[in-house]
Design brief:
alpha+beta; nine-stranded mixed β-sheet; 23% helix; 18 strands; 5 helices; 311 residues
Length: 311
């Protein structure tokens, strides 16, 4: 279990709050902060007054006295670009992980230390309020994604429209048009609302496959504690005309995998993610929408995927 360095005196004030995202509860504690939770405005719809501490997905303690693990006790795994900065990953001797989260200016914003199950984590923040907020939100998202891997849960890079009681996820590389497609659904398809515009949560449980809003929604402030059965996943492909096709199992898996948060270097966690995607595909159809960013593409897509659900 990662430990913060709390040897200084006098003892620091600790404030703990509970949250639930996709029906998975977790606790966040700030040590020595006057009001650390002001950095978590997008989490307010997900806050809970209490939680069963024995069933928490993870606990995360934010304490700026937390120090990096000694070099001889960790091994560099990789350094990867997130689109908003860089994250450096080290594996610890005990099976846990250390992350250094940097912003787009290569400034260090957060140090995150997690045990092998991501159930107990510690974090130190650096920089001004914006940097700290960026580092903290990314740290929580990392912990949630990897702690949830063993719970049939994945974070998906997608934009989600809800219509007719179902959530419809649109996936694509950034800038390809998934948000535009959802925007057109909201404009032209009756009875639609947006569930999330960047990182919804998908869970497979005994009752079926569900998609949820989350505190992570990119540039669109859509932080909603909402839930719906996942009706379909559609990959956006820019084209000169509008058409849609349902994918076979292999193509569907290949389309979904890049959109799901995972750690390929951790075999156990990766197998969990792999298994969850497989279970999703057993229940949910996947399509490719070849499209222009126009009204007709939304109508073509909606007609096809809702018709298939009624067959």
């Amino acid at each position: 279990m990662p430990q913060a360095n709390n040897s200084s005196t006098p003892s620091k004030a600790v404030e703990t709050r509970f949250f639930s995202v996709a029906d998975l509860a977790f606790a966040i504690s700030f040590v020595g902060y006057d009001d650390g939770f002001r950095m978590l405005k997008s989490f307010r719809p997900f806050e809970r007054k209490t939680a069963d501490k024995g069933s928490l997905l993870f606990t995360l303690t934010i304490d700026d006295s937390t120090r990096p693990v000694a070099k001889e006790r960790r091994e560099r795994i990789r350094e990867f670009e997130t689109g908003n900065g860089t994250t450096i990953v080290d594996r610890l001797q005990d099976g846990g992980y250390q992350y250094i989260i940097k912003d787009i200016n290569a400034a260090e914003c957060a140090l995150l230390i997690a045990d092998k199950d991501f159930s107990h984590c510690a974090c130190a923040l650096r920089g001004n309020v914006l940097m700290r907020s960026f580092g903290l939100n990314n740290a929580i998202m990392l912990v949630y994604a990897f702690a949830g891997a063993s719970k049939g849960t994945v974070l998906m890079h997608a934009s989600v429209a809800r219509q007719g009681g179902y959530g419809y996820a649109f996936i694509a590389k950034s800038g390809t048009g998934k948000s535009t497609q959802v925007s057109n659904w909201l404009k032209y398809i009756p009875g639609c609302d947006m569930m999330n515009d960047d990182n919804p949560v998908v869970r497979v449980v005994d009752e079926g496959c569900f998609i949820y809003g989350s505190p992570w929604s990119g540039k669109t402030p859509c932080y909603r504690d909402v839930k719906a059965p996942l009706g379909a996943v559609t990959r956006i492909d820019r084209s000169s005309c509008n058409s849609i096709e349902r994918l076979g199992p292999v193509e569907a898996f290949a389309s979904m995998l890049p959109s799901v948060s995972s750690m390929k270097w951790d075999i156990r966690l990766y197998r969990n993610v792999y298994g969850t995607i497989t279970r999703i595909l057993e229940r949910v159809p996947v399509y490719t929408l070849h499209c222009l960013p126009d009204r007709n593409s939304a109508e073509v897509c909606h007609e096809c995927i809702t018709r298939d659900k009624s067959v």
